[in-house]
Amino acid sequence: MLREQEKLIALGANLSSAIGSPAETLRAAIDELSASGECVLRVSRFYATPCFPAGAGPDYVNACIVSTGESSAAELLSVMHQIEHKFGREREQRWGSRSLDLDLLAHGGEILPDVTSYSKWRMLSLEEQKVRAPDELILPHPRMHERAFVLVPLCDVAADWRHPLLDRTVRQLCEALPQEARDEVKPL
């Protein structure tokens, strides 16, 4: 079970960085998170996953970690954006190719900014998701329960974490996805 101060973070990359390949970049980003004061408790296997949305670029390398530390959700998000920038991330296109993507999936059991706002973002249609992005931190991540490239690696490190609003574990959320989607996420 995820302790209150533990955080779930998803990592992904489909372009090389100055460090090297996407997998090398993810390893270096985990080291940077540790150097920032986060204590990385568990690291999933690395997975090859199809680009999302389909056709938007090369396939990804994805992973998830569980960490703990003193930072608030907003402070951790700021650190994660700094690390992305360090590895060449440019925020030019929503869901575009990237050298590093760090997503804060959960910060303990926090629901941010509130249940109503969270629900609004979780219910956006795919078309709206392509063009709209929140200007505030939404937790838990409003799309995590739909994405095999998040849930499959998350099962490695936090299978029993229970979504505070959906009241289902990561394992249950993953098992609810179509088998074809889960099969596309392949360990490296």
From TrEMBL:
Pathway: Cofactor biosynthesis; tetrahydrofolate biosynthesis; 2-amino-4-hydroxy-6-hydroxymethyl-7,8-dihydropteridine diphosphate from 7,8-dihydroneopterin triphosphate: step 4/4. Keywords: ATP-binding, Folate biosynthesis, Kinase, Nucleotide-binding, Transferase. Its EC number is 2.7.6.3. The keyword ATP-binding applies. It comes from the Bacteria. One of its GO terms (biological process) is folic acid biosynthetic process. Residues 94-105 form the 7,8-dihydro-6-hydroxymethylpterin-pyrophosphokinase domain. Catalyzes the transfer of pyrophosphate from adenosine triphosphate (ATP) to 6-hydroxymethyl-7,8-dihydropterin, an enzymatic step in folate biosynthesis pathway. The keyword Cytoplasm does not apply. SUPFAM superfamilies: 6-hydroxymethyl-7,8-dihydropterin pyrophosphokinase, HPPK (SSF55083). Belongs to the HPPK family. InterPro entries: Hppk, Hppk_sf. This is 2-amino-4-hydroxy-6-hydroxymethyldihydropteridine pyrophosphokinase. GO terms for molecular function: 2-amino-4-hydroxy-6-hydroxymethyldihydropteridine diphosphokinase activity; ATP binding; kinase activity.
